[in-house]
Amino acid sequence: AAANIGVVGLAVMGSNLARNLASREGNTVAVFNRSPERTRALLSEHPEAEFVGTETVQAFADALQRPRTAIIMVQAGAATDAVIDQLTEVFEPGDIIVDGGNALFTDTIRREAAVRETGIHFVGAGISGGEEGALNGPSIMPGGSAESYETLGPILASIAARADDGEPCVTHIGTDGAGHFVKMVHNGIEYADMQLIAESYDLLRHVGGYEPAQIADIFTEWDSGELESYLIQITAEVLRQVDAETGKPLVDVILDAAGMKGTGTWTVQQALALGVPATGIAEAVFARGVSGRADQRAAVRATIDARPQPADVGDTFVDDVRRALYSSKVIAYAQGFDTILAGGAEYGWALDPGAIAKIWREGCIIRARFLNTIAEAYSRNRRLESLIADEFFASAVADGAPAWRRVVSVAALSGVPAPAFSSSLSYYDSIGAERLPAALVQGQRDFFGAHTYRRNDRDGIFHTLWSGDRSEVRTDA
Ligand code: NDP
């Protein structure tokens, strides 16, 4: 057997990952794809790469040194199950199967348990960075057993992106589905971050009166500060792009209906199930949903004058939007990390939020300077209750709050939608409130359903006899 690692599934992600692996000193990569044409194409297009092309699963298994290690990069869902079944037929105990696709983490938990029965290790690994990341260095979030990570860790570290301090953007996240869970939340945070940037653009354009090319310059300037990130950089590039056909800014000819493939929705479903108010991510998913409802939008638009109303923005508007974006972004990440930690508690993973922040510093779509700051917050206090309870973020958000409030009020007054901005601000005001109207909600619940309430002045569980003499009774004594 000639190859020390294998890749199954040679569409864009798999072939790029295989090329990345082959480019590392000492690696020979066995490659296999259901349709052999893809395998042949990869071999002929990249004669320089150390590949062993195989056209049957058996030949693939035979090409691999033992214990075998193979990474699957096929469509998530049934295709992944089909490939796992084929590999477990020909692999042996001690071999390692890695699923690098975007699997739902509960599928990964199920698959890990089933494959473990055969003595083969199964590792669900979230891989972020798109096709370019797969080729040049992604951020990798592997789950699975600690034992399999001993073999796999060095291989993944060799192909992962590297942060400025040289650390590879990969760490063993936790057992079974932990890696895919964290990758899912990464994507949820990505949704929120993109939506916040999009709202910033919309406000600068329709309230501030700036043109796309000017907004591109504004973003480029922001990229030299605390907002420095891949998403800000690509946003500037998209805004600068001019449509060759019409001469208009490209953003003006792209249909305003945002697509999605499901990981944002999964994150929100999980947050709901875990009781985590991931409002920023939820608003971002809902905003994409609103954008896609063309018929409803047309019907409602016909009934209202939706043109932005003139609003007094003052002369600090651009900087206000920058501060609002930063504060809202802190909230989105705080909620994302809350979701991760709640998932860890629910599914029994000892997740390290600082280590997760570190492997997102490069390679993945949300890569940003900001992730270093988050890692530092968790190294100051591993058990931080909330990112915004960290001294640094607490004062950053408090400093930005006046600007944030101005932006949200200007958005409301002018009628330019800013769901993620305003929802993040409400979250901040709620989580930090002295007292919430939840007390009244408890009163209502007790009134119609005898759901009882606690008091803030003494222990016990109480109920008011609403339909009787309205005296209070203690129900737990
Ligand atoms: P696709 O998701 O488009 O999947 C195509 C690959 O799946 C082909 O190799 C195809 O083989 C194979 N396949 C489909 N059905 C089966 C089956 N029943 N049995 C065997 N093989 C099958 O490829 P991508 O490269 O875009 O993505 C691969 C994985 O990586 C996915 O899970 C995706 O979610 C994930 N991912 C993608 C990112 C991206 O930016 N595209 C980023 C991060 C993760 P054939 O050639 O024979 O049809």
From TrEMBL:
Q: What class of enzyme is it?
A: oxidoreductase
Give the Enzyme Commission number: 1.1.1.44
- What positions does the entry give for substrate binding? N102, S128, G129, G130, H186, N187, Y191, K261, R288, R445, H451
* Entries under SUPFAM superfamilies matching the protein: 6-phosphogluconate dehydrogenase C-terminal domain-like (SSF48179), NAD(P)-binding Rossmann-fold domains (SSF51735)
Identify the catalytic residues: K183, E190
Q: Does the keyword NADP apply?
A: yes
Query: What are the alphabetically sorted keywords of the record?
Result: Gluconate utilization, NADP, Oxidoreductase, Pentose shunt
One GO-annotated biological process of the protein:
pentose-phosphate shunt
Q: Which residues bind NADP(+)?
A: G9, L10, A11, V12, M13, G14, N33, R34, S35, V74, Q75, A76, N102
Q: Which InterPro entries match?
A: 6-PGluconate_DH-like_C_sf, 6PGD_dom2, 6PGDH_C, 6PGDH_Gnd/GntZ, 6PGDH_NADP-bd, NAD(P)-bd_dom_sf, Pgluconate_DH
SMART domains recorded: 6PGD
Recorded GO molecular functions are: NADP binding; phosphogluconate dehydrogenase (decarboxylating) activity
User: Which top-rank group of organisms is this from?
Assistant: Bacteria
The keyword Nucleus belongs to this UniProt entry's keyword annotation: no
Q: Which residues form the 6-phosphogluconate dehydrogenase C-terminal domain?
A: 179-467
Sequence similarity = Belongs to the 6-phosphogluconate dehydrogenase family.
Briefly state the protein's biological role.
Catalyzes the oxidative decarboxylation of 6-phosphogluconate to ribulose 5-phosphate and CO(2), with concomitant reduction of NADP to NADPH.
Q: What assembly does the database describe for this protein? A: Homodimer.
Its name, as the record gives it, is: 6-phosphogluconate dehydrogenase, decarboxylating
Q: Which organism is it from?
A: Pseudoclavibacter endophyticus
Q: Which gene encodes it?
A: gndA
